[in-house]
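[recover] target loaded
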């Protein structure tokens, strides 16, 4: 459930701790999806609250908005599939949290956005699992 690491860190960590890759991926998928509805529902109000607080909170809110702004082009252009791709690509700055924030700030429909994020998380889980087990080499 941790932003940035999400399942990209959870699957390799679970496998390194002796948990079979299937179970590591399953746990990571569930953990990755738990915060998504909350992020979709509360992003706008939390950012608005932060922007009314002190300078530190305002700067943090600005960074979150800038990150969403950087990634919104794909989602605006390709809608559902853009959100899937944003979440599915297992690189830093992508993932369920980023996808949910972008979807919330673009007023994407909650159920549709959740499904797109879930599909992206499943794709990312397969990719990370294949890399973790050595099926896909990164060199």
């Amino acid at each position: 459930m941790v932003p940035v690491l999400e399942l990209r860190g959870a699957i390799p960590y679970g496998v390194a701790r002796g948990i079979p890759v299937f179970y590591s991926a399953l746990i990571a998928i569930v953990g990755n999806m738990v915060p998504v509805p909350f992020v979709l529902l509360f992003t706008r109000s939390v950012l608005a609250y932060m922007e009314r607080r002190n300078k530190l909170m305002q700067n943090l809110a600005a960074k979150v908005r800038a990150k969403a702004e950087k990634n919104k082009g794909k989602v605006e252009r390709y809608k559902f599939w853009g959100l899937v791709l944003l979440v599915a690509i297992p690189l830093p700055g992508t993932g369920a949290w980023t996808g949910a924030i972008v979807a919330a700030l673009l007023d994407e429909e909650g159920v549709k956005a959740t499904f797109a994020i879930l599909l992206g998380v499943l794709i990312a889980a397969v990719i990370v699992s294949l890399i973790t087990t050595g099926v896909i080499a990164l060199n």
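[recover] notes: The two ends are 28 Å apart (CA to CA).
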